[in-house]
Amino acid sequence: MNHSEVILNGKAQGELLVLTEALSFWGGTDISTGRIIDRYHPQVGKLLAGRIVVLPGVKGSTAGTGALLEMLCAGVGPAGFILRGPDIIVTAACQIANNLIATTVPVLRIPDLDFSDQSLAGIWNIDDDQIFIVQSNSIRLNPKGGFPNTKQGSPRRLTTGS
């Protein structure tokens, strides 16, 4: 059973980056560039900046919130997050950034979607409780939980230039 939810509303657009392991924002990322620098992480060298990042989990403690907040305030953080489970580090950093710099960094929780499916690759547009994937499917999240309804998306429905 899928319990997808919108944790923080917002609008964002970016290329999907699926991380295969948990990430430490404090020490595992370069906060001046938004690049993964943990040499033991499978996606070392990948840029988080401007991407919709799928996180299976986060390593570390509250120092990670500060590191992620610095990236977001400097404009080198992810455009949005899709979490596999609950995470206070990401949620707190995004909420603080939303308040400090009047931005919107959406945070969604989608625990059961198979992100290894290559048809999900590409540019994603998050618009509050809807996700549009360029030339693929649109997923409407039920904020109260439940299985998301899917329907054919259209590139015309994308909001570009966010």
From TrEMBL:
Q: Which residues form the Phosphomevalonate dehydratase small subunit-like domain?
A: 23-98
Q: Which InterPro entries does the UniProt entry name for this protein?
A: PMDh-S-like_dom
> Would the keyword Lyase turn up in this protein's UniProt record?
yes
> Is rRNA-binding one of the keywords?
no
Domain of life, per lineage:
Bacteria
> Which SUPFAM superfamilies does the entry mention?
LeuD/IlvD-like
Q: Which Pfam families match?
A: AcnX_swivel_put
Q: Name one GO molecular function term.
A: lyase activity
**Which keywords does the record carry?**
Lyase
Q: What is this protein called?
A: DUF126 domain-containing protein
- Organism, as annotated: Sapientia aquatica
